[in-house]
Each structure stands twice: as structure tokens, then as C-alpha cells.
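Q: Could you write out the predicted structure for this multi-component system? I'm mainly interested in how the pieces pack against one another.
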Amino acid sequence: MAEVLAEGYNVFDTSKSPSGTVKYLASPADVIALIQSGKLKEHILLVRGGTTTFLAPALSMGAIGVITMSGAPESHLGILSREFQTPCVMTAHLTSSESRYVVGNTPEAHFEEIAKTLDGRKVRLDCTDHEIGRVLADD
Amino acid sequence: MTEGLDKTDYDVLNAVALKKMASADAIADAIGGDPQQVAERLQGLAGRGLVVEAGGSALPTDEAEPALRAAADQLYAPVRADRTVGELVERFETTNSQFLTTMSAWQQVDVGGRKVANDHSDAEYDGKIIDRLDKLIARLTPLLDVLATHDPRFSAYPRRFRTALAGVDAGRTELVSSPTVDSIHNIWFEFHEDLLRTLGREREE
């Protein structure tokens, strides 16, 4: 079995297992640039939170998979990802790190570590489990 | 870029920022304006680097949010000082949590402890969810009413909710949560973001 790089909440069970290079999106400009590049479907999108509302255009334009570093499956982004049937792993943590997201009490270093580790890596999402969504190495 | 937004620019840019991606027609519909006029305003906003056009729609740039925040600080100081608004907003947070849970229950049903996609074959279950949504929307009325006394554009929300609910009652269930139509979830989400910006608050996780 492929190496599990990160795990989080699985927003909905699906046999879809999208594969792509992780792209960290920090701002609306990153989303616009990605859409305009025409390479949206080559990437698994990594964003900071369930409240990262600027991701919506990417979902409506056909994003193939999403990883967030905070937020719950009941959040706005969770609701959207189910509507678009875009596999989504929320509040993902690195399996190689002890650091975990805690609401209102998470150091910047937590997010930076995840973004640094995953950004640019070829991964595959496994969203078949009813609770845990997995980010697998695919390189 | 440093000059402030006038009220019409604010309304147009605010609608783009709330919708994240919107055509002039959709913006005109949301703010009750003329599509041609909205298109001209969008051009002006694009010239100032506040929106960009992609795929036939306007998207907000990174500069849009700070510009809106600065304008809202000026425009909505009286709303922020209104104690009735303050009290009603406290209650909104609870209603919002219940709304999100209800929306998830519309999308997924619990079968033996496992969440599976709602296939909408159980009319009674769906009916209960729609009733709950109806009640949650009704709970917004006092807040929407008082906001509309400060800025009439807030009266667009009750109108949009009524249209969506009437559509749902007529069997168009995509008007509950579909992101591609003016669904209850979309309208609610836009209202929540609009409210936070009006009050100068940040979204909580």
C-alpha cells in the first residue's frame, strides 16, 4: 500500500480517488491564477481552512480534490464539496508529525509544516473510509 | 487604488466577493440593479485592480477584501453601533450552526452510524428537513428587517429566500443546496459573509 502522508476527516465516502500534484492556495489570487492556467485538473488543492471561501470558483470549475488544514465536514466548504462531489479531506495532519490542529489554538508552524511537506508532491486521495480521508504518496 | 469605493461600487464589489465568481446579470439580480450598469461598474473595478474577469465571470482580487473592509468601516458605523443588531447577531451564531447541521442532514443521512448520500427517496425525511430550514430562515427575519432599515439592499435576502423556498415547495429541490443556482445554502452563506463584513467581524472556524 502507498505511504499515507496525511489523514483527516473524510467529507463524504466516494470511490473517486483523484491523483495530482498538491498545490497550496493561499489567497484568491492563487485561485484565479490556477483557473487561468488551465491546469486546475492536474492538482489536488491544499487550503488552510474550512472557511477558506475563496476556493468556491475552483470547485465550480471542476477541481478534482481538496485537502484542508482546519475546518469540519459540516462547514461551508464541506457542504460545497459534497454538492460538487469533489473528494475532500478536512483538517488533515501529517502522519510524520505530532502536531495537530486545535480550534483557536494552533501555531502558524502547524500550517507551514503541512504546506511545506505536501505542496508540490504527487498524491492520491483515498476517501473510501466513512470517517478518515487519506492523502497517499503517488510518486 | 487608494480612493474609497462609492456606495454603488461597494454594492457591486461586495456581490462579487460574496458570490466569489459572478456574471453581471447575477450581480444585478442580487443587488436589484441594471445589468448594463453593473457591467460598467465591473469594468471600472477591474481598472482599479479589484476584480478580474475569468470564464465570463468577475472574480475578486486580493485587493478586493481590504477595499471592502475599509469602505464598510465608513458605511456601516451606524449599524455597528445599533444595539438591537448586536443582540440579534449573538442569536444568529446559534441559528447558523443549526443551519449548517441541517444542510449536512439534507445531503447525507445516517444509516447504522454511517453517513450515506441522501438519495431523496424518503419524502417524509426530506419534508422534515425543509420544514426545519423554513423555520431557521424565519428566525433571520428580525435581523434582516433591522438591517434593511440601515441599508435597503438587505431586503434582497428575504426576497431571494422566498423565491428559493417557493421553488423547493414546487419540487425544485436543487434550490436547497445546489451551488449553481440561487439556493437556500448560497443565499444563507452570502448573507453570513455580508453580515460579518458589515459588522467588521472575522469568520470563525
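A: Regarding packing and overall arrangement: The interface with chain A takes residues 20-21, 52, 54-55, 57, 59-62, 64-65, 100-101, 103-104, 107-108, 114-117, 177-180, 185, 189, 193, 203-205 of chain B (CB under 8 Å).
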